[in-house]
Write a structure and sequence with these properties.
Structural class: alpha/beta
Radius of gyration: 16 Å
Order of helices and strands: EEEHEHHEHEEHEH
Helix content: 25-40%
Number of strands: 8
Number of domains: 1
Largest sheet: 8 strands, mixed
Shape: globular
CATH superfamily: Alpha/Beta hydrolase fold, catalytic domain
CATH topology: Rossmann fold
Number of helices: 6
CATH architecture: 3-Layer(aba) Sandwich
Length: 226
């Protein structure tokens, strides 16, 4: 499944993103939000995987041309992220997908990993056009989603050994969402670590957990994106 780099409107300017569409030509729209590394080949491949499952996937370049190769670089890029601009980029990505002739759903899904995980939730709290949200071990200290404003159902996928998002934090988020009457489903994978889904990092990649998380993600989006 091959995609292409495109541009979409964002706050009076433009932002780039990687767009991948299914062979059928049409499908529900999904926004794919990256780890702190940025729009790297792994995230493009995840977008391709969504396309192979029948979705039209857009991975926006939230770092606007930059990406990281080391944790130090990634941390600096993540902390320098302009959250207000990012919200506009996310809104622009949603609008682009919903206006695309290949997208059949009236709302889009958001799926994100690490930094992108919490941004997926953030986008869902900011935009009623997000119809489903999947969080893979989401974390960003500067992003505070307005949970009361959330309308989309949430699927959370986390790691038991994740020191940055420990199970206690997952259950706390789950409890907050439930107390607000939100639809939420959380899974914590035993004996896994942060970024267990990333198959380009063999030291932490967990094939069984990644496969199960992917199946749940696809089923979740198929259920909620019509």
């Amino acid at each position: 499944m091959a995609g292409e780099m495109i541009e979409f409107k964002s706050n009076g300017g433009t932002t780039e993103g990687y767009l991948s569409a299914p062979e059928s030509g049409t499908g529900p729209g999904v926004i794919v939000l990256p780890e702190w590394w940025g729009l790297v080949p792994h995230i493009k491949e995840v977008a391709n995987r969504f396309a192979a499952e029948g979705f039209v996937a857009l991975a926006p370049d939230l770092y606007h041309g930059e990406s990281a190769k080391s944790p130090d670089e990634a941390g600096k890029l993540m902390m320098a992220l302009d959250i207000d601009q990012t919200e506009k980029d996310l809104r622009g990505a949603v609008n682009y997908l919903l206006g695309h002739e290949a997208v059949t759903s009236d709302k889009v899904g958001t799926a994100g990993f690490c930094m992108g995980g919490v941004l997926a939730l953030y986008a869902a709290t900011k935009n009623a056009q997000v119809g489903a949200c999947v969080i893979f071990y989401g974390i960003h200290p500067k992003v505070q989603p307005d949970l009361a404003n959330l309308q989309a159902p949430v699927l959370g996928l986390y790691a038991e050994k994740d020191s940055s998002v420990p199970p206690s934090a997952v259950r706390e988020l789950e409890s907050k969402l439930q107390s607000l009457g939100k639809s939420v489903e959380m899974h914590i994978y035993t004996d896994t670590d942060h970024a267990f889904f990333n198959d380009t990092r063999p030291e932490i990649y967990d094939p069984a957990a990644a496969a199960d998380a992917w199946r749940r993600t696809i089923d979740f989006f198929r259920q909620h994106l019509r």
